[in-house]
Amino acid sequence: MYGVWHEWVIWLGCALLMGAAIKLMDDALDVNFDLERGRRTLAHQLGRAALPYALVPAVIAVALDPSLALSVFFGSYAVGMFTTWRDQLPSHLPGYVEIALALGLSACLVGWRLALWGVAIMAVVDWLDDVMDLTGDTKSGQTNLAARIGFAETLLLTLVALCVAVLTNAALTAVVLVAVTALTIAAELTTKHLWKASDDDRGIGV
User: Fold this and answer.
1) Whole-number pLDDT of residue 154
2) Residue whose C-alpha is closest to residue 188's, from 123, 131, 129
3) What does the pLDDT read at residue 46?
4) Residue 204 belongs to a domain
5) HSE value, Cβ hemisphere, 13 Å, CA-based, for 146
6) What is the pTM of this model?
7) How confident is the model at residue 204, as a pLDDT?
8) What is d(CA 165, CA 123) in angstroms, rounded to the nearest whole number?
9) How far is the CA of 78 from the CAs of 44, 46, 73, in angstroms?
10) Residue range(s) defining the domain that contains residue 44
11) Residue 140: its pLDDT value, please?
């Protein structure tokens, strides 16, 4: 019994740390959009130090559980480029090539099944966030999946991704969802609101 609980604690710690690293990096990239919505995130408060600080929890996460950490990282990397898959990226490669490279690396390092789970669970997290932030992102000029294909369609894709995640690894799916909930609360506590958000800014009533 102790061994089982120890494994779950390791998974949760790894998911929290890698999730925190991904969230910090994502907020650093979106800092201008967040400011336009009246949100001063931790990434803005850290400034240029945000990315180096993000490396610390990421490295610890890899040390705790390399397979879980890598699958989540590469899954997040791939999903983050889904809406811009045809765009030319700073690497001078189109988005779909980098998506393929991320998925290929993940499959080589952790196996196809865990790589598929990583993409599916990160799609669930990312697309749910797109649905919740649809109105606010549109107002700030940030394009997300829900704005491109529609609210209902994004929810349907999220449900499909959740089914894939559960079927490939139900235990890790539950752990990541718990970690995402905790990270969402932590993000809210560390974000300074420059003005009171309306219901529309929170994506309510879409």
Assistant:
1) 86
2) 129
3) 87
4) no
5) 23
6) 0.85
7) 37
8) 9
9) 24, 26, 9
10) 2-193
11) 54
One-letter-per-residue 3-state SS of the chain? CHHHHHHHHHHHHHHHHHHHHHHHHHHHHCHHHHHHCCEECHHHHHHHHHHHHHHHHHHHHHHHCHHHHHHHHHHHHHHHCHHHCCCECCCCCEHHHHHHHHHHHHHHHHCHHHHHHHHHHHHHHHHHHHHHCHHHHHHCCCCCHHHHHCHHHHHHHHHHHHHHHHHHCHHHHHHHHHHHHHHHHHHHHCCEECCCCCCCCCCCCC
Structure tokens at 21: 């690293």
Task: Kindly state whether residue 203 falls inside one of the protein's structural domains.
Answer: no
Mean pLDDT by 10 residues, the chain (206 residues): 77 97 90 79 87 94 97 94 80 88 96 97 92 64 71 90 97 96 91 63 41
Q: Is there a domain that residue 200 lies in?
A: no
Identity of residue 167 = L
Name every residue whose Cβ is closer than 8 Å to that of residue 128 and which is 6 or more positions away in sequence. 158
CA distance 119 to 72: 7
Q: Is residue 182 part of a domain?
A: yes
How far apart, in whole angstroms, are the C-alpha atoms of residue 145 and residue 72?
20
Structurally, the chain folds into a number of domains equal to 1
